[in-house]
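The authors assume throughout that readers already know how a fold can be written as discrete tokens. Each protein is reduced to its one-letter sequence and a matching series of backbone shape codes. I therefore recommend that a typical entry be quoted early in the introduction. For illustration, here is how one protein appears when written out as sequence plus structure tokens:
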Amino acid sequence: MSADLEHRKKVLRNLDYVLNMRPVFNSRALYSDTTSNYLDPEEPKAGEQVHIRFRTAKNNVDTVCLVSGGRRYVMHKVLTERHFDYYETETVLSGGRFAYHFEIVSGPVKVFFDSRGPVSDPNEYYDFIVFPGFSTPAWSKGAVMYQIYVDRFCNGDPTNDVVDGEYAYIGQPVHKVENWDEVPSQMDVRNFYGGDLQGVLDKMDYIKSLGVEVIYFNPLFVSPSNHKYDIQDYDHIDPHFGKIVDDGGDVLPPGQKENRLATKYIRRTAGRANLTASDELFIKVVNEAHRRGMRVILDGVFNHCGSFNKWMDRERIYENEEGYEKGAYVSPESPYKNYFSFNNENGWPYNGSYDGWWGHDTLPKLNYEGSDKLLEYVLKIGQKWVSPPFNADGWRLDVAADLGHSPEYNHFFWKKFRKAVKEANPDALILAEHYGDKKAWLQGDEWDSVMNYDAFMEPVTWFLTGMEKHSDDFREDLLGNADVFWGAMKHHGATFSTPSLQSAMNELSNHDHSRFLTRTNHMVGRTGTLGPAAAEKNTNKAVFREAVVIQMTWLGAPTIYYGDEAGVCGFTDPDNRRTYPWGHEDKEMISFHRDLISLRNRHPVFRTGSIKMVDSDYNFIAYGRFDRSEQFLILINNNDHEILKNITVWEIGTTRSGLMRTVFSTTREGYSMTGPVYQLTGGMLDIAIPPESAMILAFYKPL
């Protein structure tokens, strides 16, 4: 009888719910995130009171609770605006991680809301997260970045060019490529085109004209390769990128591979006059960038160095140079011996038994656990370059999760690094290269953010091209798969707090992966298997434009790999490192980037506003960027035909009636900064979207 009584009570409750004419529960209206729209302050300090808000449809729910660590905080309605109610609660945050989700009850309906949206079962992995005391630099949030691989950008000073046979690298003489437009060879690492910092200075007005706010340099420090991820001297800018004011000496004789005899190279890279002049040129570069309102990020390679490094000196470059200590390879008495792990304690002089990163003897693994002196030295390097007179604005950290010999030491190091760098320059950005789960490093006390492979580059690439980011695989099942796209974005996005996500480097291409424009041709392979010409065949600029629209309207810091904006193609490393095509750029593509970035930079909502999935279908996604003052709708049609859609727009904060104006659109033929105006009916939009196109619509006139 008791079960029957409970059943009758439930029926009566439901009947009462209907008779009171309560609106049908509206799950699409539910929304919250950890932007300033719903969390105030957005970057709270420990012990500070915060206000957390949640949005529902007007007069549509009975209760809203915030749930954190098993505790439920009842939220109270504090505002009604347009067709939404806003609920709020206050709490004081302790010094630790604060994670939460929401519980919403409307009559017989109970749902939960976490970073995925409305769900029937909460999962703590997807909880909203706040780290009291953690913030990322305001300038980095949503900033448009421009990555420069210096040797391939612009040759502004031919007098500092590497010359043929100047030294040997990986057993062969280096080579100066005379034809700027020549594509990289398969073994490209010892070929130099002559790009330098003077070239960056010469083109800085061009970079600024794109709307760029941050320049990210691949490594600039003294190194023997063109990529310079094998640092020779962390203390100085490479004179081949900087200035050579004291030249002379001899190149290696034909057939000779011993770099101790490369007196021209030794004079150029170990001579104090050249190092000082190069450092001074870098200071000028930063000053000129700052004068134009741009920031500068350096590449920090602290997991390993190079066999040329003055601490190791396997090439015996510094062995007899005045003012340099003996390297660890040269002598067991070297002050740098414990900077590396040696497997043969009887191997000196010239002990080659050291550990190399992934077994590469050209990349000696740094042994921080064995030397506190090394730790302190690298921490000082981290401080030096973000301090006067150099004044760089932050670090991108190469293979950051590999540093050290254990996870415990890795986290210990990055905590120390963050403390040191932020003490030197509190406004410096610390951004790491990382693939996979990044949560452990984004707890507020190590990295600020990451290169956003998992929650940007890969989902966008799979959805628009079906290609793996190296062009090593084509997956037809992922091409146009909107469910996988949103699933990846939500799953991997949940590992970020909002300050980290707003500063994440959102790239389409970079120096490690194929150019995005090449991926649009669906050709699986590399320059060694298909040849470089194949990278330019059957590319699809319309799909590339779709990708750039996503990049420039997504949450994070859109990062252009030099030359992408000019139509440069290329398979993965080394073909992705082609030179910038000065004199034969794709000028329409440059204008496209410039105009789209201009739109982005005029509207703060693209930097720090909320983001919400609105609709999806095969080869189609729609999402909103919005706050209480601005609402934008972005539509991406990757189909080869026009599609007709009825889009729910009111859920991004528009009124039920009003107008949506096309402020930017792309087609197969090009792009436009104007377009049709559409009328909302009941908060819905009927629209025809052209094939392989993108549209940005702005809500601008309630009716």
The chain has 15 helices and 33 strands.
